[in-house]
Predict the 3D structure of the following.
Amino acid sequence: MQIITLTTDMGERDHYVASLKGTILRLCPDARIMDISHSVKPFDTAEAAFFLNSCIDDFPLGTVHVIGVDTEPMINFSGSEGSFPSIMKFRDQYIISNDNGFFGSFLKEETHDGFYRMDDVLSNPSLFKFPTKNMLIPAACRILKGDAIEDFCSPFGSFKKAFALTAVIEPNLIKGNVIHIDNYGNLITNVHSSLFERFGQDSPFTIYYRNKDYHIDEISSTYNAVPPGEKVAIFNQNGLLEIAINRGANGSNGGADRLFGIRLGDVIRIEFTPRGSRTTLESLF
């Protein structure tokens, strides 16, 4: 099965995505094209990484993922090292992107199985005008056709890191951030269940958001564990803490983002009160 996925910031109003798909079908007629998202915020490589991270394990081995976000190569611009079209092997799949910080955002603490920089990037400057179509898509099709990556790429020892919000642990406290707001207005955070579980299964806790104006003190297994219109916290299928309003997107007030006035990057605090953590009589009340 020959699968190419597309993650871009091109939207669906213009012809750009159709041009990508037409090029794929011309170069690799048997390919199956899957859209992950074309609604990435322009040039937001961290959001593109979040989308791919959220679903890459659902694809079969050998899938090729093309990331069409901030793809124009940059050659020693303003004294930087530049950015070049590159390929990463990851869990027997292939990710093709400009090395613009995407790979660092995607990989985080994971390890890859090989990183390569495409050769001859500078030989044809006309390809720079639509690099996702003219550079990344042909590379994806070569992989699907069985060409060895080493035939058109060279191994490279490093890739660019990108700043990404990460959850941190303090005594009896986790501080995280809202990293994505989905189509339902659900607030997805960077707090993973494995981080939460470090405090033990039985430690009482309170999740605070919007400067403690709102809080939740339990994790539910599903949205419908609470009545429609009620706030709920769950760990989603990717293990990330999510704060939602059950069926809130159907109501007049919208989802959790609108009701609570939460924006991307806002802080989420989880305060734990394990037995013995209250040190004074006043702190018990």
Observations:
- The chain has six helices and 15 strands.
- Confidence is low (pLDDT under 50) at residues 279-285.
